[in-house]
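Quick illustration for those who missed Monday's session on complexes.
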Amino acid sequence: MAEVVLKDLVKTYAGNDSRATDEVSLTVADGEFMVLLGPSGCGKTTLLRMVAGLELPDSGQIVIGDRDVTYLEPRRRNLSMVFQSYAVFPNKSVADNIGFGLQVRKLPADEIRRKVEWAADLLQLTPYLDRYPAKLSGGQRQRVAVARAIVMDADVLLMDEPLSNLDALLRLSFRAELKKLVGELGTTTLYVTHDQVEALSLGDRVAVMRDGAIVQCDAPTSVYDDPADTFVGGFLGSPPMNFLTGTVQRAESGRLTVDFGGQSVPLPQALSSYEGKSLTLGVRPEAVAVEGTADGEATLRGSLQVLEPLGSAVLLTTEVCGQPVKVQAPATFRAETATELRLRLPSAQCRWYDPDTGLLLEAR
Ligand SMILES: Nc1ncnc2c1ncn2[C@@H]1O[C@H](COP(=O)(O)OP(=O)(O)O)[C@@H](O)[C@H]1O
Ligand SMILES: [Mg+2]
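Prediction with adenosine-5'-diphosphate bound:
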C-alpha cells in the first residue's frame, strides 16, 4: 500500500491544441478510494494512464510511496489496472486468466494456485475456474478482470470505468461488491468514471474534472451539497442543481434581496457587496418543497409545466420568472399543468454563485 502524489501533471497529445491534463495535482492517501469523475474527454483516462506509466507527462511528477515513478516503466510501479474492456484472454481458463500476472512474475505454482483461489472466492468465481471466457457472462468476465488485478498485491489499484460495459442491474450489484472488496483489501485505489452516482457511492473522495483540470476534490457529500462552482452543481445530481440568476437589491427595510424579475428571495448579509450586481442562486430539486408551511423560508411562485412520476418521487418542471426550476416532490403529489405552486427554499440549502466566474460564494 502507498500514498499517490500527483504534482502539476501536464499532458498534451501530438496534434492537439489543448492540454489533456492541465497542471493536475492530487494526493491520494494510503488506502484511500479516490474517484476521478467528469464528462467524456475531460482527461480522466489520460491521468490514470500517466499513473500507470502507459503515457508520459510533458511535465510534472508522480510519486508512489517514497518513489518518484514519473518516468519508470509500468511493470516497475507495482500497480494493477482494470480497464473498461475486460481484456480477458479467450484462450485461457478463468484460473489462468486470474493467475496470468503471477505466472509472468514466475511465482511458484502452488503460490499462484493459492492466490487465484483466494481471489476467485472473493469474486464468486470458484465454480468457474476451469471455464473459458466465452462461456461466462459479461459480469463474470469483469469479475475475472478484477480478480486478476487484486492477486497482484499491488500498491495501487487503477480502474478505468470498470462497470460501464455491464447492464444497469449488474452494475448496481457489482458496485456494492466492489466497494466491499476494495474496502477489505485496503488498497489505495484510483477509479475513473463519468457516472456521478457511481462516483458518489464508491469514493472516499471524489475529484471532479473539467477540461483537463480538477475543479473540486472532496468527500462525496461535500461535492454534492456544496458544489464549488456551477459546473460541479450542474454535473452532479439527477436532475442537476437548479440555477436562477437575479439582481441584488436593497429593500426599504434595508434587507438585501435577489430579484428574479418580479419575484425575490432574501440574500445573506455576507453578500452585501453584490448590491446592484447579478447573483446566481443554486438549489437542488430535492431541497425545494411544494407542500407545507413556509415559516421564515424563502418562497417563489412557480408555474407547473410538466409533472413526471418517477415511482419513488414526482419530478416537477416549473417556471419562475421565465427561468426553469425543477422540483422533486413526494410520489403522491399531483397538480394540474399551469397551476401556480408555492416553492419553498430552505436557506440552509441555498448556494450563491458569481454568475461571471461560476464560483461558489461564501455566504456565512
Ligand atoms: N491517444 C490520444 N491522441 C490524441 N488525443 C487524445 C488521445 N487520448 C486522448 N486524447 C484527447 O485528450 C483529451 C482527454 O481524453 P481522455 O483522457 O481519454 O478523457 P476521458 O477519459 O475523461 O474521457 C480528449 O480531448 C481526447 O480527445
Ligand atoms: Mg476515459
